[in-house]
């Protein structure tokens, strides 16, 4: 019986059980993220799925990839929050959550700029997803990626001392 948990005190075992992630929540987060990636790809590259009906990127296509991005954000948050277990999240993880939210807002606002009347072709013209909108969505995705990195629970490895 060289199991290091065997030598742990009951209080240490309770803390370890409290810090363990919920496998169900991690799996749910990963599943939602993968599904969101699929929806995002359908919106961003519909020709990969033989769904391309127009040579331009229109409102429906923009809306679909933004919905996919929302699913990625929610799934990633659920999965990474589950990795923290019942322990308290760090300040960096809380800032990461806010960066994910901010990045999504940036992506939605820049992706739908024409619909909101702030783009290069305000309504009633056909919405146009141009290079400026693409750069804005990419900037939002950069914020989201940094937020996810900040939410990762980096913990120092605990070494057991031999008795």
What this model shows, in words?
The protein is mostly helical. The protein has one domain (23-151). 61% of the residues lie in helices and 0% in strands. It contains five helices and no strands. Helix 2 (23-44) packs antiparallel against helix 3, helix 3 (59-83) packs antiparallel against helix 4 and helix 4 (91-111) runs antiparallel to helix 5 (131-151). It is elongated, with a radius of gyration of 21 Å. The model has no long low-confidence stretch (mean pLDDT 83).
Report the span from N to C terminus. Answer: 14 Å
Largest sheet geometry: none
Specify the structural class. mainly alpha
Number of domains: 1
Q: Please, how many helices?
A: 5
Uncertain residue segments: none
- Work out the number of β strands: 0
- What integer is the average pLDDT? 83
Rough outline: elongated
Order of helices and strands: HHHHH
Give the C-alpha Rg: 21 Å
The fraction of residues in strands falls at under 5%
Which range best describes the helical content: under 10%, 10-25%, 25-40%, 40-55%, 55-70% or over 70%?
55-70%
Secondary-structure map:
Blueprint: H1 10-19, H2 23-44, H3 59-83, H4 91-111, H5 131-151
Helix pairs in contact: 2-3, 3-4, 4-5
In short:
The protein has 163 residues and is mostly helical.
Question: What labels describe this entry?
Answer:
163 residues, mainly alpha
